[in-house]
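Lab intake sheet, docking and co-folding queue.

SAMPLE TYPE: protein with bound small molecule
LIGAND NAME: nicotinamide-adenine-dinucleotide
LIGAND FORMAT: SMILES
REQUESTED OUTPUT: full 3D complex as structure tokens
PRIORITY: normal
SUBMITTED BY: R.K., bench team

The fields below were copied directly from the construct record.
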Amino acid sequence: MSDLLKDQVAIVTGSGRGIGAATAKMMAAEGARVVVSDLDADPSEAVAAEIKKAGGEAIAFPGDVTDPAFPETLMKATVDAFGKITILVNNAGYTWDGVIHKMTDPQWSAIVDVHLTAPFRMIRATVPYMRDAAKAEMAAGSKPSSRCIINVSSTSGLHGNAGQINYAAAKMGIVGMTKTVAREWGNFNIRCNAVAFGTIETRLIQAKEQGETITVDGEEIAIGIPQQMRDMLTMMIPLGRTATPEEAAGGILLLASPYASYITGHTLEVTGGYGI
Ligand SMILES: NC(=O)c1ccc[n+]([C@@H]2O[C@H](COP(=O)([O-])OP(=O)(O)OC[C@H]3O[C@@H](n4cnc5c(N)ncnc54)[C@H](O)[C@@H]3O)[C@@H](O)[C@H]2O)c1
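RESULT FIELD (auto-filled):
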């Protein structure tokens, strides 16, 4: 245990597995009290239990980020448990790929909902606990405490990606959202940054041939990318390999840490050099 995030309270969405789980564990190991929130309850509970077993502090608060009522419930549960919110990581999501001429409206909407509308609602739901809390500190004559929001983007957002018009649009949209929050809330000492991931070894990018799926609203959606694409991607990554979820979480942790106190509105590429 270290104390890079001492006195911080972090919400990490989609933290039942993958990059979110690694982020929650690393933040807890750095002293943050963490709310583990995922669509799936069992993995949320398991990650929170793992954090507590390792000597950290965490609660599990599962739920669907696309439920319009969920963000406010999540914020309230966090404050009830830990008294405040200082870090929000908008990480939850999945892919539902399709070429443009076959992309359906539900497919488009579901992905824009989870990767764009849900983070917007999450950010808006922090207002009483981040913006208003900072205003109150300023009114009392003190410098507002450090608070930050980190949104997860993707190389698909920055460069586009065949078969991902819905995901690419949402993941670029979150970059615009990030810069807007940074501009509106900078004077409250609320930083907002994005991390664009390349190829991180989670279930999201496993070979499609393995048949991995996610069930959303009762619908089973195939995730993953074709094996041929995986092979090709690795060849285009200057570091020549994919990354672990912990390496991805490192980018998020960096932006949440005091070492990033003067960084806002930035999109950090954690890609092994892909796309440079
Ligand atoms: N893995 C990569 O290479 C990669 C690359 C670029 C961006 N990303 C992004 O990173 C983020 C994390 O993905 P990952 O790779 O860890 O995948 P993952 O599937 O391992 O984890 C994503 C988690 O989000 C949860 N989730 C999905 N929809 C949700 C919802 N509606 N409400 C609450 N939770 C929900 C899932 O249950 C899952 O536990 C995503 O936003 C993804 O788009 C990943």
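REVIEWER NOTE: The first strand starts at residue 9 and ends at 13.
SIGN-OFF: pending second check by T.M.
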